[in-house]
Structure formats: structure tokens, C-alpha cells
User: Which sequence fits this backbone?
């Protein structure tokens, strides 16, 4: 069986790492019957957003890099499709495996289906119901086209059933991100927080000298266009962070390129980087982020992956969004997060309440560190049951 899998942006790397390890394990035990080709679309290209994750998580270098880079959504989607079509015609895999909901996930599943190649979607069935999110469109298109829909939780399986997807295509396998978390937890645990700060301080940022991290710290990440691209949303949020959050606790912010660009455009970058109790880091590695998460008193984020990690680690989390495609991470489902949107009054109220909460780890069903092995077993089973193969180019 020949499998071609795709990564494009940072959140894909921690999902593909255990998948590749599970293929290696299967091949070792079964005489190498799965051939795997890894394609990177190149949507994320900075060392800190991409390469660093390959080395930290032991992902082999991509066999093919499409080098798509930045651009409008249309440019990213279109250029990926054009380049990926050639790859598929050249390699003719049995399966294209896509993960998550980034632009690469959509582009590559569309082209695979146009060439009549089977698509397997890892992390299928997540729905925010918010069509203004590019990721929601990516999820809907990918799930509509996929032959094998592998869900991380039962709520996602129910979403697919409610949309009329045939139950035979849906398999609840668990959360592959948690495979990576469990495989790397002890490495992260042993990292020194002060060293992480010193080694990753963003260029030009104030070096705080002494890091009172033992007194506790809050952690923030922001990258969604709905939070950072709009001045009317972003400016009040920054004011709240600088005047209230950072007054209470040291605030650590590993900054996404999109957020940094916006701070510079709005003239807020100097204020942020010189704030006496804010520590601005460049994008940090997987283990470093996990370490900061393990030690944080509270996290504020608009990242989907962090919500899931907070759930398992129990870190009290404010999700800076009005909706989530990952409801299983919310407190009402036993998780550690609460939705606060981008209204400052609401954020403030929940922030002070959340500061009083203890860590409360929870483990949704099948978030057990063995999802990738279940996925490989399923693909092998599907392959044994199937006799159709290859692109037809019509
Ligand atoms: C993308 C994904 C999002 C994911 C996020 C994680 C889509 C639609 N969005 O959003 O789902 O949660 O990645 O990071 O696929 N940039 C750099 N260096 C890089 C990569 C990007 O400077 O290595 C800059 C780009 O020039 C661009 C901005 O960051 O201006 C945003 O990058 P882009 O890939 O368009 O989307 P993300 O916001 O990162």
C-alpha cells in the first residue's frame, strides 16, 4: 500500500509525527508493506514555524516540498492544487492522508478526489458552525470528499452522522495530537522555563533579567484573523493584557507572525515589547510550549490545539473565540476551557474567576496516546478490503 500524507502549517506537524511513527512500527513488524511519501506544501516556512518541529518531533524531512509560502487564501489554495496535481500523477498513491483543517488539507483533498484517489481525513467531523472561519470551510469540503473520516471524539462522529455521512466511512479513533503530547510529556517536563525564555526572547524585546516564574505566570497565544486582524477587537484586547493581566501576573506571549505584523501596523509593538511584566517570545518549539503550558496558572488562546492540550493537562483556559469546533475541551464537557469571545467585559469576568480555579486534567475517551496505531490498522484493513486503485485522470 502506498500512502501519501500532507502537512502545510504548524498544527499539522504534531499530528503527522505519530502517524509516521506508527507506519514505521507497522513496517518493522510486518516486513515493510506500507510505502509512505511525505509532502510539505510549504505554507509555513520559517524555521521556527516549521523545520524546528521536524527535528524536535523526529519527523523525517519531507520527500517533496511544494514551497507555496504566504499569500491570500486563493493563492495558497490555487498554487497548492497546481503543484500537488503533478505530485499525485507522478506518485499515484492508494491513499492521500490529510490532517486538520488548514489550507493544505482542503487543496490536497480536492485534487486527490479529482484524480480518483482515496482520501483519509484525520481529525474529521469537527464543526464550529462558523462559516466565516477559513478552517470551517476547509473542514466541510474535506469531510464531504473523504472516503475515510477519522474522528477524535464522539461529538465529531455525531456531527458527521447528522450531516448524512454514511456510518461505514466514519471511525472514532481518538485524538492523534494527544499521542504526541504523551510521547513528549516527560521531555517537556524537564525543560527549564527561564532557559526557554532566555533562548526565545523576541528580537528587540526587553530582557527581564530576573524571571519570577515561580510566582506563577499567565500564557497567551493569538493568531486568528478574527482576533488580530481587526483593530476594534485587537486594540481593546491589548489594553486589557497590558493594564490588567500583566499587572496581576507575569504574562508570557510566544507571538505568531500574524499577530506581530498587526502590532507593528497598529503602532503597539514598542509598548508590548517594553512592558515590564510581559515577556514576548518568538514562536517556540513543541516541547517548550508544552513546558510553558504545564507551568501556567492560566492560558488565554484562540488556538484549537492548545485547547485540547489544556484539557489533558488541566490548565485553566480562556478560549478567545465565540465558538469552538472542539466542544469536548469545554468545562461543560469536563474540559478546562471556557469560551469568552472577544468582548472585554466577558473576558475580564471569566479571567478573574478562572484565576481562582485549580488545575483539573481530564481525558476524553480514546485520548490515550494510541490513536495513530488505530489509524494504521484501519488503513490496512481498508486496503485489504478494496480492489480499486489509482488515478484515472478523467
Ligand atoms: C494557519 C492556518 C490555521 C492554523 C495556523 C497555525 C489556514 C487557513 N490557517 O493560519 O488554521 O491554526 O496556521 O499557525 O490554513 N507567516 C510567517 N512565517 C511562516 C508562516 C506564516 O511569517 O512561517 C506569516 C505569513 O506571511 C502571513 C501570516 O504569518 O502573513 C499568516 O500565515 P498563514 O499561513 O496565512 O495563516 P496562519 O494565520 O498562520
Assistant:
Amino acid at each position: 500500500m502506498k500512502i501519501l500524507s500532507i502537512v502545510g502549517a504548524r498544527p499539522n506537524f504534531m499530528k503527522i509525527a505519530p502517524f509516521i511513527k506508527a507506519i514505521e512500527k507497522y513496517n518493522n513488524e510486518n516486513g515493510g508493506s506500507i510505502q509512505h511519501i511525505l509532502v510539505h506544501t510549504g505554507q509555513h516556512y520559517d524555521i521556527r514555524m516549521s523545520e524546528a518541529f521536524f527535528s524536535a518531533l523526529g519527523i523525517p524531512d519531507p520527500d517533496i516540498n511544494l514551497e507555496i509560502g504566504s499569500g491570500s487564501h486563493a493563492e495558497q489554495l490555487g498554487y497548492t492544487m497546481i503543484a500537488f496535481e503533478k505530485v499525485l500523477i507522478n506518485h499515484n498513491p492508494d491513499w492521500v492522508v490529510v490532517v486538520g483543517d488548514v489550507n493544505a488539507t482542503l487543496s490536497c483533498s480536492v485534487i486527490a478526489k479529482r484524480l480518483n484517489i482515496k482520501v483519509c481525513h484525520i481529525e474529521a467531523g469537527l464543526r464550529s458552525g462558523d462559516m466565516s472561519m477559513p478552517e470551517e470551510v476547509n473542514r466541510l469540503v474535506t469531510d464531504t470528499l473523504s472516503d475515510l473520516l477519522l474522528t477524535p471524539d464522539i461529538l465529531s462522529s455525531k456531527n458527521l452522522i447528522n450531516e448524512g455521512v454514511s456510518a461505514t466511512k466514519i471511525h472514532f479513533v481518538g485524538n492523534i495530537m494527544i499521542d504526541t503530547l504523551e510521547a513528549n510529556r516527560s521531555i517537556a517536563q524537564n525543560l527549564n522555563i527561564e532557559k526557554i525564555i532566555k533562548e526565545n526572547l523576541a528580537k528587540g524585546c526587553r530582557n527581564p533579567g530576573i524571571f519570577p516564574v515561580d510566582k506563577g505566570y499567565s500564557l497567551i497565544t493569538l493568531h486568528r484573523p478574527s482576533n488580530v486582524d481587526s483593530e476594534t477587537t485587537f486594540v481593546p484586547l491589548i489594553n486589557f493584557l497590558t493594564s490588567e493581566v500583566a499587572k496581576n501576573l507575569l504574562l508570557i506571549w510566544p507571538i505568531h507572525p500574524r499577530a506581530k505584523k498587526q502590532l507593528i501596523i497598529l503602532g503597539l509593538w514598542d509598548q508590548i515589547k517594553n512592558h515590564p511584566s510581559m515577556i514576548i517570545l518568538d514562536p517556540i518549539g513543541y516541547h517548550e510550549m508544552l513546558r510553558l503550558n504545564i507551568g501556567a496558572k492560566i492560558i488565554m488562546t484562540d488556538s484549537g490545539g492548545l485547547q485540547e492540550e489544556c484539557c489533558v493537562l488541566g490548565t485553566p483556559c480562556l478560549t478567545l473565540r465565540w465558538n469552538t469546533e472542539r466542544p469536548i475541551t469545554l468545562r461543560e464537557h469536563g474540559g478546562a476551557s471556557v469560551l469568552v469571545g472577544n468582548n472585554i467585559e466577558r473576558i475580564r469576568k471569566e479571567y478573574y474567576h478562572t484565576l481562582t480555579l485549580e488545575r483539573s486534567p481530564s481525558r476524553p475517551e480514546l485520548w490515550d496516546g494510541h490513536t495513530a496505531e488505530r489509524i494504521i490498522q484501519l488503513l490496512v484493513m481498508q486496503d485489504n478490503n478494496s480492489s480499486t486503485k489509482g488515478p484515472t485522470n478523467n
Notes: Residues 9-11, 43-46, 49, 70, 101-103, 134-135, 223, 256-258, 261 surround uridine-diphosphate-N-acetylglucosamine (CB under 6 Å).
